[in-house]
Amino acid sequence: MTMLLDRSPGFGVYIHWPFCAAKCPYCDFNSHVRHQTVDQERFARAFETELATMRHRTGPREVTSIFLGGGTPSLMKPETVATVLDAVAKNWTVPAGIEVTLEANPSSVESVRFRGYRAAGVNRVSLGVQALNDKDLRFLGRLHNVDEALQAIGLAREIFPRLSFDLIYARPGQTPEAWQAELEQAIGRAADHLSLYQLTIEEGTPFHALHAAKKFAIPDNDHAADLYALTQEITAAHGLPAYEISNHARSGAESRHNLTYWRYGEYVGVGPGAHGRFVENGRRVVTIAERMPETWANLVEAKGHGVTGGETLTRSEEADEFLLMGLRLAEGIDLLRYEAFSGRSLSTARLSMLQGEGLVAPIGNARLRATPAGMIVLDAVVADLAR
What we know:
By secondary structure, the chain is of the alpha/beta class.
């Protein structure tokens, strides 16, 4: 448990499985529906190849977490998952018992498959439940119903040592009373971690067009802020306080992999559309892979990787990203680490102004956090501090 709580940023490996059974209307992730069978062996080989290329770039490292995200990784065969996890262990040091998470949809859950993932080395599952009423599940374009969701939660709790599931709130017409009842039901089922996201309308999604055409409305900012405050209150009262804006956990059960992102650690991203951020030759580089799955696989087969974009960050870009990520966390940021990135300390005038407005607060002399009010307008707080 020490590793989860020691605040070291860590070195994570992210694997992106880009395929889904159906595309959800709110989703802007890199996910693709294929009506013919996906050649899993081909993609597994491509993951192996790209992981080996990334190992040449990072040098020897000790991995602190592995995350299989998507898309819908629970459409992978357990053998595919085993191949990928073995490839990670061939390239870097992977200590026994580190967090290995796989995202799963309740509609693609089978007991045999789950047991196969566990045997392959997965020890934490993140379930895309999204709602605990059938009407809203249909609205969100999900392929499962509430009964299937509850069955998947029960099965995951039985097979995996750790479980998280996602819910989306601030849905059309959702009252505080209805959300409270649903959230309390979720907390009763949760093991130790919940991810609770407000519904946002992302450009390029079907929901964006429907919302623009006034086919549905979502709660306004004030109503959404009330639902956010209610969420914080209920989860804290039940022992799952927010450790990040949208993530709640019992003490010690925080997602190690996501903490690596928010603590501005390093991570390798492998697969179609995956992003990575790691230190190479003393500088932090960003890697961005080709988004189209088959094009990515062709590139990997031709030149050993599918990276088509990226950059080397300047010190000031690193400092800004560190602020933006770290202030999402309840633990806040280490001010000395900010100074190491930026070469300067934060402006005392701006700090005292934001403190006076109740948007940030010091933690002792060494750390700074956003207050609950600051979390709601975090982008503006970061823009003020970064100037």
